[in-house]
Amino acid sequence: MIRAACAEGVKLDIHGGDTRSGLGRPRCGRGGISTAALEGVVFYEPAEMTICARAGTTIEAVEAAISQHNQILPFEPMRPEALWTNRGEPTIGGMVATNHSGPRRVSAGAVRDAVLGLRLVNGLGEAIHCGGRVMKNVTGLDLTKLNCGAHGTLGFLTEATIKLAPKPERVQTLEIAGLDEKRAIDAMTRALGSPFGISAAAFLPVGIGADDSRALLRIEGFEDSVAYRAGRLIELLAEFGEIQPLGGADSSALWRAIRDAKFIAEPRDWAVWRVGLAPSEAHAFIARLAATALAHYLDLGGGLVWLATDESESAAAEVRRTLAHTKGHATLMRARDELRKSVAVFQPLSELELRISRGLKASFDPGGVLNFGRMYPGV
Amino acid sequence: MPQIAFPRLDADVLRRRDSIVEGLARILAPECLIADESGRLAFETDALTAYRRLPLAVALPRSTEEVARLLRFCRHEKVNVIPRGAGTSLSGGAIPQEDAIVVALTKMNRILEVNLADRYARVEAGVTNLAISEAVGPEGFFYAPDPSSQLACTIGGNIAMNSGGAHCLKYGVTTNNLLGVRFATFDGEILDIGGPAPDAAGYDLLGLICGSEGQLGVVTEATVRLVRSAEGARPVLFGFDSVEDASRCVAAIIGAGIVPVAMEYMDRPAIHICENFAHAGYPLDAEAMLIIEVEGSETEMQALLARISAIAMAHNVRTVRESMSAMESAQIWKGRKSAFGATGRVADYICMDGTVPTGRLPEALRRTGEICASYGLRVANVFHAGDGNMHPLILYNVNDLGEAAKAEAAGADILAMCVELGGCLTGEHGVGIEKRELMPRQFADVEIEQQKRVRAVFDPEGRLNPAKVFPLGERAA
Fold it and tell me: Does residue A19 surpass a pLDDT of 90?
């Protein structure tokens, strides 16, 4: 089908669960191609902590399979339903194509770090396998990573092999209430720089889910180890105030909300940004944006700012201008189509980066068949 | 006779040698250019010492700008370029030819920035792997990937090969610990990719460059992730009566949800070779041994060791020896990390680097033994068991030309077996010249062509580290 489209010069939009279709530059294809029929687990080896699933398999189905052996997807994949409220179920293909990780990214790496191998069809209609099923693999160019986060512009993903992690025996969240943002980042930085194995660190300012601000630190592992580390962290962070352990059910709902940007998903006419920064830059960035930011919170110890602005070109320009003071980058995760057409959705590239990106696109998809222009013009 | 071919030399470049050297002299200070034969001899090979070729000249640039100017000059003059770090590649990744310029980054060895709050360091590409950990060690941090050559190898070389090490099971390989690079293209342009902020949008050029074996451009600076050291770490030796028990034990530990920092495997020949060298107290009566390292506080380590020991017991472990002091731990690791060097004192060897799924380890070990025996050769196995990355050391006599060819043939058979079992040709050493012709075992033609098209985006004429990675085909001399 891709070969035919290539021959006829037809542009195709790739569909998975269609749960993130509101992401990226608006679609422009004249036809569509779906992973819906590519469903199911190809193999699952619990003793190797490795699963291989077809691209159309839902994330939920994979998680259900691996939880039977007490295993998890290490990067805690973000679920799109809060942000985009589309119907349908998010798939493995969409997860890989967007590289959307969750709070455990700070300790366990991103989707791209756990994907061991991919099968895809390039824009010439050729079946290409990249990587494999083992963690140590440096054979040839790493086209696996190149395709993670490529939004389907280089290939139509058909299968992904993913490294798993053991499900923690115990999860403990520690909460410090009432800190201002600067102090909260200091507390998270100290915790993340400690030997006590923080798996996630977030800061919810005043009004985000509660009346008081909350710095949240999560520890995971074997029962005895978690108890020990929680105790040491409470000592280490004593100067930041009283530290409360949070109960299991409450805390997992909280981390899901942090993962999925639930706190700023409403109202629906807010534009939602995902801003990557060095944690030490986060506070100054927010302070400079005070007039534009409608709401925000921090994940990844301050390395990720979830930000809401109004849906205007001027707000978008202000976000980009403020970012220029930092080493960071921003993605406009949700906004109406018109705005995503008129402003850069992804971090603008330098002229050289754009030239390389167009070259890479052409090397996989010379006819521009696959998700053309979803990321950048001409890519 | 050694089997690996080199491409035909470019006669035009050889004819223009003097003018090319003059051009380099206009870019580099006199002490940064080596043109005389005795000086170039030091760059004729890397750690794949069976192959040696004298380069046309050696450039030792001192800045990114100099690297960029050199590359632009070479591109314009149509001269091949061999980027080089410390020259510790086991796959011939830095071996030059008479018509190529070596660009060695060893003079670029400054640590530019350490930021412990954001947990990263920015370093020049010629900094050694260990120097980073040494610089931040007093503050309780380290740089995680730890190839055995970490004392000598450079971070630039680590990035080119996506190097691993013994502790990757928990902390990942180079690509998982690399946050950004400064990169000079063959056109002489300078590109900054990534940085301390995670997950930049756009194509993952960082992931593409890492492991690209110096064929896309030259990395001149790197921003790497720093990791806080655990409160303590302790290696424990487990001796087994059979290879099967040891490898099933590895699978059982991982299956139980335990990911130790390291799980290293040695078979009987390797145990004896390393024990003779390091006197680390390895069990000489064991058929197979695991070094398993755990981390954390004293209580955490004891709890984890109790779980691991119970699993080992269920797999008929014969001896268990816990390190009782920092010195003993150092001895245990010294034995493992000097395995290649210690083997070199006993015999000549070639070191393989295939990976297999951990569930297939018993079969892979059995077949490795059978393959070597069929060529009449001995083999010692020492490898990273937790991730299935095997390092069979095939022993032979370098002065016996027939044996050398047999060793290479046995190595090729072993790697083909790794691919057949669902693994790959190289886990951490890279393809280089060594495994180039085996690439079609792992990749179909369209897949190799796809990789070559990606390479051509950066270097259409294939002059950056040529004759590596991709099969030579008709270009052989």
Answer: no
Query: Of A7-11, A68-72, B51-55, B426-430, which gets the smallest average pLDDT?
Result: A7-11
Question: Would the CA dihedral through B118, B123, B125, B128 be positive or negative?
Answer: negative
Distance from CA of B81 to the nearest CA of A (A): 19
Contact by Cβ (8 Å): B106, B208: no
Q: Which amino acid is at B238?
A: F
Q: How far apart are CA A127 and CA A120, in angstroms?
A: 6
Q: Which helix (H) or strand (E) holds B412?
A: helix B401-420
pLDDT tens-digit readout, B417-452: 999 999 999 999 999 999 999 999 999 999 999 999
pLDDT at B477 over 80: no
A282, closest residue in chain B (CA to CA): B197
Task: Give the lowest-confidence range in A27-31, B57-61, B448-452.
Answer: A27-31
Q: How far apart are CA A361 and CA A150, in angstroms?
A: 10
Closest CA–CA distance from residue B400 to any residue of chain A (Å)? 30
Tally Cβ neighbours within 10 Å of residue A57.
Answer: 26
Put simply, the chain A residues between 111 and 140 with a CB less than 8 A from any chain B CB are: 112-113, 122, 126-130, 132-140
Model confidence at B152: pLDDT above 80? yes
Min Cα separation B59/chain A (Å):
26
Kindly report, residue by residue over A90-120, the tens digit of the pLDDT. 999 999 999 999 999 999 999 999 999 999 9
Q: Which of B199, B257, B429 sits opposite A70 (nearest CB)?
A: B257
E strands in chain A: 12-15, 31-34, 41-45, 50-54, 71-72, 115-122, 127-131, 155-163, 165-166, 170-177, 198-204, 214-221, 243-246, 270-276, 295-299, 304-310, 329-334
Q: How far is CA B15 from CA B9, B43, B54, B140, B357, in A?
A: 11, 21, 16, 55, 50
pTM, full prediction? 0.96
CB contact under 8 A, B442 and A140: yes
User: Which residues of B fall within a CB distance of 8 Å from A161?
Assistant: none
The DSSP H or E segment spanning B351 is strand B348-351
In the numeric block, the tokens 């930021």 are attached to B115
pLDDT of residue B1: 44
User: How big is the A-B interface in CB pairs under 8 Å?
Assistant: 252
Question: Could A48 and B119 be called an inter-chain contact, meaning their C-beta atoms sit closer than 8 Å?
Answer: no
Question: How far B107 CA lies from chain A's nearest CA (Å)?
Answer: 27
Whole-number mean pLDDT of chain A? 94
Q: Which residues of A touch B204 (CB under 8 A)?
A: 99, 112, 145-146, 148-150
Dihedral over alpha carbons A251, A252, A254, A256 (to 10 degrees)? 170
The span from the CA of B37 to the CA of B56, in Å, is 9
Give, rounded to a whole angstrom, the gap between the first and last alpha carbons of chain B. Answer: 16
**Which are the contacts of A131, defined by CB distance < 8 A and separation ≥ 6?**
A115, A116, A117, A118, A137, A142, A143, A144, A161
**Quick check: A251 pLDDT over 50?**
yes
Residue by residue, DSSP assigns B301-314 as: HHHHHHHHHHHHHH
Partners of A273 in the β-ladder: A307, A332
- Are B200 and A145 within 8 A, CB to CB? no
Residues A254-274, mean pLDDT to the nearest whole number: 96
A140 exposure class (CB count in 10 Å sphere: 0-12, 13-18, 19+): buried
Whether residue A367 lies within 8 A of chain B, CB to CB, comes out as no
The answer to whether residues B430 and B415 touch, using CB atoms and an 8 Å cutoff, is no
Do residue B203 and residue A48 have CB atoms under 8 angstroms apart?
A: no
Q: Which segments within B141-241 are labelled E, that is strand?
A: 141-142, 178-184, 190-194, 218-225, 227-228, 233-240
CA distances from residue B355 to A184, A288, B277, B301 in whole angstroms, order as listed:
44, 50, 27, 29
ipTM value for the complex: 0.96
The Cα B221–Cα B109 span in angstroms is 10
